């Protein structure tokens, strides 16, 4: 049971639950790696340690990983990627605190329906504050911070923000079951008439981001309540009419999007149904990455309003959506998907520069400066790190390697070796870096554009 898209979804379904990809048209195709690329290895926890991306320390606690510099580069790149996509889709970004007063969650309903997953409240003088289990209540208050007109709607508020989940230590591991979660979240406040369009647009945003990342979902799930809604078990907010409206709208959204889906009972959030975009890990275990929800409940609880064209007050609808889910889960998935051989735009180090000897050192450092000026992440691996062969092997997961010998240094050339084994003709440094920069800027899956080379030489 869940308070929010991702909060609920740390529960990976059993392996037998995993379904094969059912629709090649609607679901983004996977990255087609050339055959000589490294084969994705199984477990993100092992790879995360080997590649020095993240780790944990018993003194910080289980389920509380820290990010090492290379992992932090990937995370930062992903966060900027998603912010850029959201900006283009009309979202505005906010920051809100990871703490809130207990009363806030009593109003939202988390206190009544989700307390088992929340950390205990902290006493602060005469009040109690809690680590937030979701971002929704904060965003509802941001909406409510002043009067809203129908002309402002849909109002799309996005945040990459922290939230917390009091998982039992027995089930924690790696980046997939964590107690501190960085969520890619957003809430669209809109009129009831706009809700379906906004949810359809959110699904398109999700599919586009998945394509760029090479992520291939295994299925779309319409997550419904179970019998608890009728029995008044306390698992869900009791308002059958609102549930029915939301379910009807999400069903319409899925039909309009043309994606095949399965309706599954017992997977809804406590305040409403949701569309979950499911992925599977290397072991075939399914989990939710992205979600879209239509929520009539929280606007009621927070008494949200907008002034309509008629001058009267109306109730907006909240569309909750997450494009890449939590940063932790999506990075875990990408580590397993690529086995550490990330597309160039995501790779922690994009270019390794290999001076043949100390004589080319100064020249190599200049090339590195030029890379940094272009926003490329480049490193120099000099002779102090071993023979040329050893240095090349050490950098085998880096998308681009460039050896600088006397000729390259004298003629201002770059002789590139691509991770997949290709070796384009040496190019002037500026041109080689511009081509890499163009591929990185386009979030390309390919490492090289042969046609650009041909044009460049012609
Ligand atoms: Zn939400």
Automatic annotation (TrEMBL):
Cite the SUPFAM superfamilies for this sequence: Class II aaRS ABD-related, Class II aaRS and biotin synthetases
Q: Which reaction does it catalyse?
A: tRNA(Thr) + L-threonine + ATP = L-threonyl-tRNA(Thr) + AMP + diphosphate + H(+)
What PROSITE patterns does this protein map onto? AA_TRNA_LIGASE_II (PS50862)
What InterPro entries is this protein classified in? aa-tRNA-synt_IIb (IPR002314), aa-tRNA-synth_II (IPR006195), aa-tRNA-synth_II/BPL/LPL (IPR045864), Anticodon-bd (IPR004154), Anticodon-bd_dom_sf (IPR036621), Thr-tRNA-ligase_IIa (IPR002320), ThrRS_core (IPR033728)
Keywords from the named record: Aminoacyl-tRNA synthetase, ATP-binding, Cytoplasm, Ligase, Metal-binding, Nucleotide-binding, Protein biosynthesis, Zinc
Q: What class of enzyme is it?
A: ligase
- Region labeled Disordered — which residues? 1-42
Q: Which GO terms describe its molecular function?
A: threonine-tRNA ligase activity
**Entry's EC annotation:** 6.1.1.3
Q: Aminoacyl-transfer RNA synthetases class-II family profile domain location, by residue? A: 69-343
Output compositional bias ranges, type Low complexity: 7-30
Q: Which CDD domains match?
A: ThrRS_core (cd00771)
A Pfam family it matches: HGTP_anticodon
* Annotated transmembrane regions: none
Task: Identify the NCBIfam families for this entry.
Answer: thrS
Q: Which family does it belong to?
A: Belongs to the class-II aminoacyl-tRNA synthetase family.
Q: What is this protein called?
A: Threonine--tRNA ligase
């Amino acid at each position: 049971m869940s308070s929010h898209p991702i909060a609920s979804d740390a529960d990976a379904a059993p392996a037998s639950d995993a379904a094969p990809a059912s629709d090649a048209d609607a679901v983004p195709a996977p990255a087609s790696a050339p055959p000589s690329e490294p084969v994705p290895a199984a477990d993100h926890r092992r790879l995360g340690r080997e590649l020095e991306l993240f780790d944990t320390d018993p003194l910080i606690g289980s389920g509380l990983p820290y990010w090492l510099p290379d992992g932090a580069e990937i995370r930062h790149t992903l966060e900027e990627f998603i912010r850029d996509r959201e900006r283009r889709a009309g979202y505005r970004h906010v920051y809100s605190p990871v703490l809130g007063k207990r009363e806030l969650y009593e109003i939202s309903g988390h206190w009544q329906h989700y307390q088992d997953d929340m950390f205990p409240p902290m006493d602060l003088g005469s009040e109690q504050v809690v680590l937030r289990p979701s971002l929704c209540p904060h965003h509802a208050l941001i909406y409510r911070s002043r009067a809203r007109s129908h002309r402002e709607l849909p109002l799309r508020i996005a945040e990459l923000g922290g939230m917390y989940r009091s998982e039992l230590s027995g089930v924690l591991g790696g980046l997939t079951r964590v107690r501190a979660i960085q969520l890619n979240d957003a809430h669209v406040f809109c009129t009831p008439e706009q809700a379906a369009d906004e949810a359809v647009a959110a699904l398109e945003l999700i599919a586009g981001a998945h394509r760029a990342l090479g992520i291939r979902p295994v299925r779309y799930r319409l997550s419904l309540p179970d019998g608890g809604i009728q029995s008044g078990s306390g698992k869900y907010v009791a308002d059958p009419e609102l549930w029915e409206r939301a379910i009807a709208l999400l069903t319409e959204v899925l039909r309009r999007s043309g994606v095949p889906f399965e309706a599954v009972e017992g997977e809804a959030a406590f305040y409403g149904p949701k569309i979950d975009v499911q992925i599977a890990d290397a072991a075939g275990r399914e989990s939710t990455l992205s979600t879209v929800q239509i929520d009539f409940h929280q606007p009621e609880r927070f008494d949200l309003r907008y002034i309509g064209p008629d001058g009267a007050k109306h109730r907006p609808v909240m569309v909750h959506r997450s494009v890449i889910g939590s940063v932790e889960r999506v990075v875990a998935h990408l580590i397993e998907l690529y086995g550490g051989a990330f597309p160039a735009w995501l790779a922690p180090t994009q270019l390794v520069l290999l001076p043949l000897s100390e004589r080319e050192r100064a020249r190599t450092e200049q090339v590195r400066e030029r890379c940094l000026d272009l926003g490329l992440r480049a490193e120099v691996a000099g002779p102090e790190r071993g023979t040329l062969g050893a240095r090349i092997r050490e950098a085998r997961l880096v998308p681009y390697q460039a050896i600088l010998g006397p000729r390259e240094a004298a003629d201002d050339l770059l002789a590139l070796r691509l991770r997949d084994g290709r070796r384009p003709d040496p190019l002037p440094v500026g041109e080689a870096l511009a081509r890499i920069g163009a591929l990185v800027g386009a979030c390309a899956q390919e490492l090289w554009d042969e046609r650009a080379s041909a044009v460049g030489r012609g």
